[in-house]
Design goal:
By secondary structure, the protein is of the alpha/beta class. Among the domains are: about 80 residues, Arginyl tRNA synthetase N-terminal domain (Gyrase A, domain 2); about 160 residues, HUPs (Rossmann fold), CATH 3.40.50.620; about 90 residues, no CATH class. It is built from 20 helices and 13 strands. The strands form four sheets. Strands 1-2-4-3 form a four-stranded antiparallel β-sheet. It has a four-stranded parallel β-sheet with strand order 6-5-10-11. Strand 10, helix 12 and strand 11 form a beta-alpha-beta unit. Helix 4 crosses helix 20 and helix 16 packs across helix 19. About 45% of the residues are buried. The structure holds arginine (ARG). Arginine binds next to strand 10. Its EC number is 6.1.1.19. It is found in: Cytoplasm. GO terms for molecular function: arginine-tRNA ligase activity; ATP binding. Belongs to the class-I aminoacyl-tRNA synthetase family.
């Protein structure tokens, strides 16, 4: 069993104290406060129900709170809040319990929940761009957090592996054969070149365009040579994506890649079911779903097109088939789609269609976990000077190179493989943290200098904070941190215990809105609170039993920082 947070124990006490009021659904919110350790509200709502004065209700709750182990003082504050101070003993007992709890107080709220999460989703034969980076990083962090809370998570990398563009790619490759490239990156370069050349030929040479169109028909018809060429292109790209995932250290494998093509066989049935249930209707030759509230600028309704006039299926039909399968076969209790905010309308229409079709029961939430755009130094969507997509591998290489300089400056003795490893941990961590620390729907500017700064809300700052704590602990080898609950606490110690206590509740908040930046903010504050503590309270030079308590604080802070960083997908080495 994991240890409940002080906030939740307090909430229980306040609820018990309010029992004589005779309210059935009294639910106090207990939060940290600037005026006391915690503040409880809920008395205002209670007073309304009881038609009594809020401060009188609050006073009654205060009077009924048992003085003793947990609460040192309770006061009525403001219009009817209750300010609560905890005893030093309760704080230290919490520290001791937490120290012995490998889960750091985190429960298993997700234990019976299956989440299917769609993220990363690069496109075959195209370079991954920063949008795919965001999706991959945010998705990976959510996967880690949900799994840590005991949830079952099914990862779906919805790779763009189907579409008419494959006609020109395959045709061009047949006409210009090349031996295979050796590395993933070289393969990708070649595929990207193939894409450009095929596109140029398609646009400028009508005869080639015609051959490419026939090739699409051959692909859709399952012509063996064409299919095998398609498979090669998919495999080459996938190998490259896997390289990128390995470099990023994200938990996505080949088994998680279920591309758009995987749903091809289901598309006719999806269309038939929608038509039969009256959700979709033929308009202008296309099978469409209409929405009361989705209209174009001129007021005409904008449909979701399930089947095009030419009989072909597109992006929307595939998403509908995938959704139906994720709920129907994978038994998802929750669907997440980590996709660029610019696709909001698409997902609104897909989810609405699926609800109407009965594929998405009211009990299953479907969430577009939208994210903003990565901007370049000019404040516009991040592109190279030539206006091309910034290659993800170049970006990661640059981050790791710069991190190497930062690490080497701090550790002149570090060299070779050890330096490389730290550079990777710091560089990749910096990229991930910069992405995750911004509220996910906001745009942010990609700035390698800022994300590798040693001070401020950066991954490096947190990695250093963690490593510093490990080195303090290493100097105290042989001394087990033993908590003595009878010692009086300094304010900086109290503040640190209270911050540590909020870890589990922070993860609950992260999951409530699928917002990893809340975890980043928490870890940053924790590191700052630790710094204040360390400045004011000597650890190794303190006498027992104070030293034992302070070492315990160091240990728990180190463990919380490490676990928190791991949940963001960021490594926390013991030394930096
Ligand atoms: N491959 C698409 C793109 O690069 C994103 C796919 C998002 N996922 C989905 N189920 N539609 O824009």
């Amino acid at each position: 069993m994991s240890v409940p947070s002080l906030a939740s124990s307090l909430s229980d006490s306040v609820t018990a104290a309010a029992a004589p009021l005779g309210l059935v659904d009294f639910a106090p919110q207990v939060r940290r406060s600037e005026h006391a350790d915690f503040q409880a509200d809920g008395m205002l709502a209670a007073a309304r129900t009881l038609r009594r004065r809020p401060r009188d209700v609050a006073a009654e709750v205060v009077a009924a709170l048992p003085a003793g182990n947990l609460v040192a003082a309770a006061r009525v504050a403001g219009p009817g809040f209750v300010n609560l101070e905890l005893t030093d003993r309760a704080l230290l007992a919490q520290l001791a319990d937490r120290l012995g709890d490998p889960r750091l107080g985190v429960g298993t709220a997700e234990a019976d929940v299956t989440t299917v999460i769609d993220y990363s989703q690069p496109n075959i034969a195209k370079e991954m761009h920063v949008g795919h980076l965001r999706s991959t990083i945010i998705g990976d962090s959510l996967v880690r957090i949900l799994e840590h809370l005991g949830g079952t998570v099914v990862r779906r990398n919805h790779i763009g592996d189907w579409g008419t563009q494959f006609g020109m790619l395959i045709q061009y490759r047949f006409e210009h054969p090349e031996p295979p490239a050796t590395t993933g990156t070289a393969t990708m370069r070649r595929l990207a070149a193939l894409y450009r050349q095929a596109r140029a030929a398609f646009d400028s040479d009508p005869a080639f365009a015609e051959r490419a169109r026939r090739r699409v028909v051959a692909l859709q018809g399952g012509d063996p040579a064409t299919l095998s060429a398609w498979r090669d292109i998919v495999a080459e790209s996938t190998r490259y994506f896997t390289d990128v995932y390995d470099r990023l250290g994200v938990r996505l494998t080949g088994a998680d890649a279920v591309g758009e093509s995987a749903y091809n066989a289901a598309l006719p049935d999806v269309a038939a079911e929608l038509a039969q249930r009256g959700v979709a209707a033929v308009s202008d030759g296309a099978l469409c779903v209409f929405f009361d509230d989705v209209r174009g600028p001129d007021g005409t309704p904008t449909p979701l097109i399930v089947r095009k006039r030419d009989g072909g299926f597109g992006y929307a039909a595939t998403d509908l088939a995938a959704l139906r399968q994720r709920v129907g076969d994978l038994h998802a209790d929750r669907l997440l789609y980590v996709v660029d905010a610019r696709q909001a309308l698409h997902f609104r229409m897909v989810f609405d269609t699926a609800r109407r079709a009965g594929w998405l029961p009211p009990t299953v939430p479907a969430v577009h976990v939208a994210f903003g755009t990565v901007l370049g130094p000019d404040g516009r969507p991040f592109k190279t000077r030539a206006g091309d997509t910034v290659r993800l591998v170049d970006l990661l290489t640059e981050a790791v190179d710069r991190a190497r300089d930062v690490v080497a400056a701090k550790n002149p003795d570090l060299a070779g493989a050890a330096l490389d490893q730290r550079a990777r941990q710091v560089g990749i961590g910096a990229v991930k943290y910069a992405d995750l620390a911004t509220g996910r729907t906001r745009d942010y500017t990609y700035d390698p200098d800022r994300m590798l700064a040693l001070a401020g809300n950066t991954g490096v700052y947190l990695q250093y904070a963690h490593a510093r704590i490990r080195s303090i602990l290493a100097k105290a080898t042989g001394v087990e941190p033993v908590v003595d609950a009878e010692v009086a606490l300094e304010p900086a110690e109290r503040a640190l215990i209270l911050d540590l206590d909020a870890f589990a509740d922070t993860l609950t908040e992260v999951v409530a809105g699928f917002e990893p930046h809340r975890l980043c903010g928490y870890l940053y504050r924790l590191a700052q609170t630790f710094t204040t503590f360390y400045e004011r309270c000597p650890v190794l030079r303190a006498d027992e039993p104070i030293r034992g308590n302070r070492l315990a604080l160091c240990r728990l802070t180190g463990d919380t920082l490490r676990t928190g960083l791991e949940l963001l997908g960021i490594e926390a080495p013991d030394q930096l």
